Structure formats: C-alpha cells, structure tokens
Amino acid sequence: MSKNENSKKEGWQASIPDESLDPGQHKRRKAGKSDKGGTPSPVVWHTLHADEVHQRLETNPKGLSAEQADERLQKHGPNQLAQIKRRSAWMRLAMQFHNILLYVMMGAALITAFLGHWVDTGVLLFAVVINAVIGFIQEGKAENALEAIRNMLSPHATVIRGGQTTEVDAAHLVPGDVVVLGSGDRVPADVRLFHARELRVEEAALTGESLPVEKSTDAQPADAPLGDRFGMAYSGTMVVHGQGRGVVIHTGKHTEIGRINQMLVDVRSQSTPLVRQIDKFGQMLAVAILLVCALTFALGTFWRGNAPADMFMMVVALAASAIPEGLPAILTVTLALGVQRMARQNAIIRRLPAVEALGSVTVICSDKTGTLTRNEMTVQRIVSANHVYEVSGVGYAPRGEITHDGHIVDLETDHALALAVRAGVLCNDAHLYREDKAWKVMGDPTEGALLVLGAKAGFSQDLGEQAWPRLDVLPFESQHRFMATYHRNTDDKPWIFVKGAPEVILDMCEREYANSDLAPVNVDQWRRMATDTAAVGLRVLALACKQAAPEGDGLGFADTRSGFFMLGLVGIIDPPREEAALAVAQCHEAGIAVKMITGDHAETARAIGAQLGIGVGKPAVTGAEVAMMDDATLRSVVMNVDVFARASPEHKLRLVKALQGAGQVVSMTGDGVNDAPALKRADVGVAMGMKGTEAAKQASDMVLADDNFATIAIAVRQGRAVYDNLKKFVLFMLPTNGGEALVVIAAILFELALPLTAAQVLWINLVTSSALGMALAFEPAESGIMKRPPRPPGEKLLNGFFVWRVIMVSVLMMAGALGLFLWEYEHGTSLETARTMAVNAVVMCEMLYLINSRHIYDSVMNREGLFGNRYVLLAIAACVPLQLAFTYLPWMNTVFGSAPLQPIDWLKVLGAGLLVFFVSEIEKFVIRHTGLRKRLLGA
Ligand code: ATP
Where, by residue number, does the polypeptide cross the bilayer (predicted)? Predict the structure, then answer.
C-alpha cells in the first residue's frame, strides 16, 4: 500500500506559504534595507568579503568566546521564529460546539424550552456545555502534549566557540557565531560563508527553486537576488552536499525566513484515517438518528394519535440516548495519550497518521550501524601487505596494544603500519576528548575508532595535524564511500590520504606498501583479506596515500582516481545491541519481517545479521545486484532476502517501492539527506534522532530519540495499543448508547410508559460517556499484542464483528433495563421507582461492560482483566456516589424524577449488570473457540 498522500500533506511538515515561493518578492526587496518595523541593518552582508564580515561582527574563524555568546544572546534574543499563533482559548471553546451531534442536542434544547419543559432544557444544555468543556480541557492537554513533543525535536547546530567545535541548541546561536555546515543539516541562521567545499544547498523554502545551489565564499553585487547570493546560506534551507563554514549574520526574526515570519515545523493535522472514519460515522449516525426521530414522531402523532408535545419529549429522549456526545473528545485524548506514551519511550511521532500505520506495519527495514549495532567502534585488526595485527582494548579509552603473533609491534621499525595509522588519524574529522573521566568521540564513531588506534600507537591527533597540517578535504559521503585529505608534511612535501570501503580504495591504488618497499598492488589478496575480516562481523576500511599535490586549486575527485599506494585494512568491531536481538525476535513473532539495509560490506552485514537473527540461512544481496534487477525481479526477490549490503539511498527507495508493490506496509529508517525520498515514500519513515540529519527528520513520520531499533518495536507495540484503545472505546460507547435508544424505541413502539425520561437519559450519558469511557484511553497494551499478525491496512472499523457486538450488547442492556422496569411497574411499583431502577440498571450494565471492554476478544475473568487498569476501577468507583446521589438526594429526585430504592432493588439492578457481563464473556469464549471471529470479520 502506498502512503496516503493526503494525510502526508496534512501532516506535520514544514509549510511555507505561497507568498514565500515568490522569488520576485526577494528580488524586489533590496538587501540591507530595513524590514517593515524591524531593526535597520545597513550592512549588505553578501557584498562583503569574509574578513570584513569577521571584523564587523567582531569575530574570527575560531568563533566567539562563551562569554561573548552569552552577552550577545541577551542582546539579540534567541534564534527562534515567532511561534505560530495558536487558536485563542475562546475560539477553541467555541469550536467544541461545532459538532453535528451537539447541534442536534442544542436544537432539542431550544424546542423543549419553547414547550416549557425547563428541566429538560436545563439538562440538555448542561450536557452540551459539560461535553464542550471536557472536550476543551482535553484538547488543550492534548495540544500541550504534542507541543512538548515538538519541542523535543528542536534543531541543533554545530558551532565553533573559543576554537572548540561543539553542538548547541540552534536557538542559542548569535550573530558572530561560526557555524559548521555538513550535508543533511538545516542551515540554522543566516550565514555569510567563509569556507565552502562542494557545498550545495537546497533553497526551495525561500526561493521556490528546488535544484540545489552550489555555494562559494565569493562576494556578490548588492542587487544580486536572493537565489544568486552564493556566498550566503539562509536559515531554514537544507545542505544537500559537502561542507561549509560561515559567520552568523542574522538570527531569529531578522533572518530571511524570519522576515517572511513563518514557522518551519508546523504540526497541524491532529487526525488519523481511523479518527476521520469515526467522524464520518458520527455524522451519518446523527442523520440516521434524526430520521428515526422524525419517523417515530410522525408515527406516534399521526398513527397512534399521541399529543405532539408528549411525542416530542419522547423523541428528545430518543435522540439524547442515541447520540454519543463524548466521542470526539475521547478520540483526541486516546491519540494524544498514545503519542505521549511513545515519546516517553523515545519514539517521537511527527505525523499522527503514523500512529495507526505503525499498527499495520508488515516489514521493518533498518540501517545497521548505530540502530542494530551500538555504534561504539573499536579497531580490532589491522591488515598490511605482509602481516595481520591484533589490537587490544575496548571502547574509546586509548589503552591497548598492537601485537603481531603475540608480540608488541614497534612502529618505529614497521613503517607501513606507522603510515597506515597516521593515515587513519589524519584523514579524519572526528575528535577524541575526555569528559568526566570518560573518553568520548565527537563526530563519526568509525573515525573515532581510528583516532583511538592512533592514540594506542602513540600518535595523537593534535601533534599529527601540527606536523602534517591539513590543507584541504573531500568529506565522506555515503554514496562515494571514501574520504580524502590533502596535507603537507614537515619537509613541505604534499600528501593525499584516502580511507574508505576497500573496493573503492583498491580501485585507486596501483601499488602497495610492503616491507618498506612499493610493490604492484595484489588486488586479489587484499579482497580476500577484506572478505575474511568482514566475515567475522568486522567493519572494514581501507587506507591508502600518495605523495602528490592536487592538480587544481583544491582537492577534487580527479585527484582521487589513481596513483595511490595501499597501506592496509582496518577491521572495526561494532557489537550488536542486545536489545535489538530481542526486538527482532519480537517482531518476527508479531508477523513483521525485519530487513537490514546497510552501506557496509556484505560479509560484515551477514555476520552481524546472523547475530541478531536477521537473514539467517538466506542470501545477502548487494546494492550493485539490486541495481541490475528490474522492478518485477526485485519485487519477487525482496521478500526472500533480509540483508541488503553496500546499499545506497537510491536502493532504499527502490526497495521500499518493491516491498509496497508486493503488498507490504513498510517502515524504513534513515539518517542521511539522501534517505529523505525513501523515508517519505515508506508508510512509516523513521529518522534517527541523534545521528540523523535535519533533512531525514523532516521527511520522517517518526524520530527515534535513541537511534535504537528496539524503539521501533516498542512504537509498533504502542501503535497497536492505541488502535486497540480507539476500537475498545467505540465498542464501549456504541452499545451503551444503543441500549438506551432501544429502551426508548421499544417503549414508544409498544406504547409503554417511558422507562427513561429525556433528563434521565442525559444523566446516564454524562456519567457513562464522560467518566467511564475515558478510562479506556489509559488501557495498557495487551500482553499478547505482539503475538498477533499485523492489522490489514484499510481494515474497516465497523466490520461484521463490530456490528454484531454492538447489536448484541445493546439488546442485552435493553433487555436488562426494560425487563426490570416492566416487571417492577407491572407489580405495582411506582413509575418513579421503576424508572430509577431502570436508570441504575443501565448504569450498572455500563460499569460492568466497561470491564468487559478492556479486552475485545480475551476474557477479563482473571486478576489482570478485573483489576489491570486502575482508571477503570476509579471510573467505576466515581460512578457509585453519583448514582447514590441520583437515587437518594431529594433535589436530584425533584430534578430527575428519581426515587430512593430498597436494598433488594439494588440486588435486582446488580443482576441486570451481571447478565450483560457474563453473556459478553460467554460470547467472547465462543468467538475464541470457534471460527466465528473469522466468519464475522469476513476473513
Ligand atoms: P548503515 O548500516 O547505517 O547504512 P554504514 O555505516 O554501514 O551505515 P555508510 O555510512 O554508508 O554505511 O558506510 C558505507 C561504507 O563506507 C562503510 O562500510 C565503510 O567502508 C565506508 N565508510 C564509513 N564511514 C566512513 C568514513 N568516515 N570515512 C571513510 N569511509 C567510511
């Protein structure tokens, strides 16, 4: 099934108004002119050279000091755009009344007032108001909860302060800060670039131009339109390639996007397909109820000859009993509670429809590194042309030795090894540092592992860079699978180092460094060694170098094509997460296939997959093989393969499409900017919260705050639970209204005394729908929830089974309440007492049926079933004093026409409740033990 495009559009995605898509607007607005009412900014930044920008902002490429940043933050305020104006409280309250079910009730109130039935008018209006107030409060809570979740996704920025690279909340950026931009980042403020390396930025948010713009550090003429100011990067635009550095010139509302005054992240849709389905059902129900009311009124008045005023009161009672007023409020609450619960467990929902889609996911495609594995990398093996070395020590602490055949190796004499270690340290963008006695890595953990290796060999990053300063870099991009740096050594000789996937690096090499000599590269031998290293689950990187300067101005791809000599391979261990193995097993049990899609070597992927229970005994397929298959072949292969290695983001997109083509509901994880299309296409796109780029997060439906695969399994479980709770609530609500309506209809049809007055019906609805039904929103996931197969997507809520259950319980409730009423009334009990018993019988049925409703199919006749949800018990306990008040308080007797009951009467009332309870349990038993469920579901 492909994703519901509409729900995507309505989703929590960035929304930029049409006016922002008008590039002309920016052309018309001359740079540097003050914005309307804003602060005047006479400096036309894009015309200035970088040095001048530094000077004017009193900063330098090493950034501001922490004190300066604090001071400026006080002065300029946080780097935030004005919040979207929330609907005012009054507006929200008014909107609560905008509901067809409540319109019907208000109409009835008006007519009862006209007829002078003030008590009924009062109760009707009270019911309308109380429902609106409950809806208002609950919706407010739900909005706050979602707001809090949205704040958890606040963007971060990499800045250089006091010469140190750190991550800060983007809101804390100030003019003069030096920011580092990498592919996948959202530009956090308006920035004048002073360094750009293959930097391409997609500026559609501002200019409407979807093709990325190549950035440089050049100054532009003052009248250059926004899209042509190549030396600038603007807040809210997206880096799609390369690296850059720049000085922040404007923050918050003074940025270009701030001037347009738009929020970038807009959580709007509060609806899901199921909620819309139920909303529509509510409307149909209202129309049906009105028709039945009109028909009953006509029959009663014209056929039976009753007084129109009496008939009208009966019809009001009927309408009041049948309308499930509490429905909209409780649906919102159930969803919001579910989303909150997921957020507490690290799964942050960005688009509400994902909650439901999670419940029907049939395939989870996951990255390997960091999601299934711990992303704590340690080099364990080094392979040179002549030797295989072992490296001891675990984690990032630089404690351990490099040994060969059990002897510690002397790097002074082993030049090939020393150069390989140096290559790993120099061709590296990470930083190793110590904090609170623990060693940590800032940047890519793979590179961190190489720094730790260097430190173990006595080769520190700082000293290395001082002696061999870096002049240029080609950053790592997963589609190229390598990184290159250009240095000059102490003798001022040029060197280019590369590191990356072995097959990519081997392609660049002509020779290898063996025994202090250069020999022709033995490609087969290296390949074999790479495969052997990968087969034990190690991640393999190759290191190579050449003594040459770049051909052009800076380092380019042309400089990395040939002429290198191979130095060695490193094998890096990245242990699987223990909880991931359990989560994979859980998914399998829940009928969900788990596929690993990784950029890593096929052998490494297979070995790690086997440790996790993914793809055991099945072949692994590589990205190159996927590229060779046509769509039809891929569709036929995709279900039988669980490990896809050396896969690039385009392969991910094809795999999602193939799986969807094979009828699967797909969840796909991703972190890079290039993963965005696959995340968008997947039914549930999942981005990594820690290592994921802003681009991936924006394209996703859900963000994993801890990057952990196990969290996806938890989210699926919660998604199933939320859906269950919505169903349970509807299954509780409809028969309770249905039962009351049947009591009234039967009375009208058989010309009986009305067992429930309109006011009494409304009382029941208030007590039951507001107090009782709400408790089901707190229902925890059922224990067997991950043992069921996924829910078929597009499954209709009101299927045969639902209709059956609603009718059955409605009839039971009607039988209990009406039966009791008639019995008592026939045997001389007063009308008031008999009605009071009927009201109490209905409420008792609902209280006990609430317990039944905790499980749709499973029995509740056990400890967990009866006592497992304390909100259910509290709701029931809260109803008891209300019913006692209704029965015994004299003023209640006056308002509602109720009367005090005797103890024996209560036993009869309890009997009616137990009838519903036990018959419902018997029905579940029969359904569980026969094929009835399947037949009712039409499956
Ligand atoms: P995932 O499993 O999450 O897809 P991955 O780390 O296995 O992630 P990539 O990050 O795309 O996939 O890496 C693919 C290959 O590129 C790795 O197997 C490795 O050989 C090489 N590689 C990874 N990181 C670097 C790096 N920082 N510098 C150079 N090469 C790298």
Answer: 93-115, 121-137, 284-305, 311-337, 729-750, 762-781, 802-822, 834-851, 871-889, 909-927
